[in-house]
Records
---
Amino acid sequence: MDEEAITIRFTRDQALALSDWIYQVMFQSDGLERLVRTTGPSCRQIYAISGTLDKTLSEILMLDYGPRFEAATERLRSDLHGGAAKSTGSYQQSSSRKEHDAKNIQN
């Protein structure tokens, strides 16, 4: 089996959006269970990606995470559509994300 490492590069905005999506799928819904078997290798890799993003993105622990996330998604929408994008509403970070992330940092 080939164990050559693969590097994937994201902009900070892309990484923040992906991190938030993974968080929503893993902890705010039963989405992960619908996507992959929770005991399989795919699930472990999703956790590994999530952990790497969480260690890299200091923004997820900042008090102004919501506005930062919203600004990042607006920039991504604008880049995708080649101009100014309409806001889909303000993002409100749930206290459960803050509590969950704070517990992970302490451990």
---
Amino acid sequence: MADPLSADRLLRALRDEGLRVVEYRSWRTHNRNHKGPWGPVHGVMVHHTVTSGTDHSVALCYDGYAALPGPLCHGVIAKDGTVHLVGNGRANHAGLGDDDVLRAVIAEAPTLPPDNEANTDGNARFYGFEAINLGDGQDPWPAAQLDAIEKAAAAVCRAHGWTHRSVIGHLEWQPGKPDPRGFTMASMRSRIERRLARAPEGPAGPGTTPPTPAPAPVPVEEDPMPLDLNTRVPIGSWLPERWPDDPGLADRVLLLRTLLVGAYAYGRAALEEATAARAAAEEAAAALRELAPDRPALDLTPEQLDHIADRIGERIAAQVVDLIAARLAD
């Protein structure tokens, strides 16, 4: 039986392990304790976020979403190894899992049984760390991030007097879950075992200096629709059908930055066509003057030329909007 660490003890344990830690918003009082118990705790669970971008991922894990309110973990581990604390208490990260697995974790058994049941509340029993990764088997795991997963899990285990066998992955707890994908939990537990055999790297360790405290986040107005340029957006069939030889459309998924680049290209094309239309109108007026020198001069005023260019630009801009809307709708 282990009582959960207080916010101060958790923060100190992580920093003593040599981690850079950011305290995000009101993480110290942010929890789901009103929905059920928090503790006794028995282990640490590792997840991947299925997101990209630090700001977006941290905000999502803090706030959650309509079907699953936040916090969605206790700490978010970024690609650079920074740990962002987003919750202290019960968090919506583990869900229902296998009671046989929980008993094995409590006993710190050398092997875990198969997770073939979902009958036990894991949110009450496990600390949760979400590591930022798309979980597609292609998104890389930087060394700094793997080191931080190792250190964060070791820090909690060290604080409670647990061994590496108290650390599991979500895929070992709840049937059907794939995370974390990209490394094995057996290899991660081996790393944690080696780390726990040494003194911590932070202020409590020999020959080290305390890490620089992370600055308090500057309050900013939250963006209700944060723009993450690394978001992958599925596309429909009409683009590959129109440009079947374009290798960038082969997998029918585009990065959001690709969409923005496309919109920019359409806008440049609209500007160029409007400019060409204005030049063509001026040439036509000059040709008419040459063909009929005895007739009153047919001069287009700058306002008329601007009107022609604007009308063409408006038409092309409307086509651009339709194309982008259709692409996003698909």
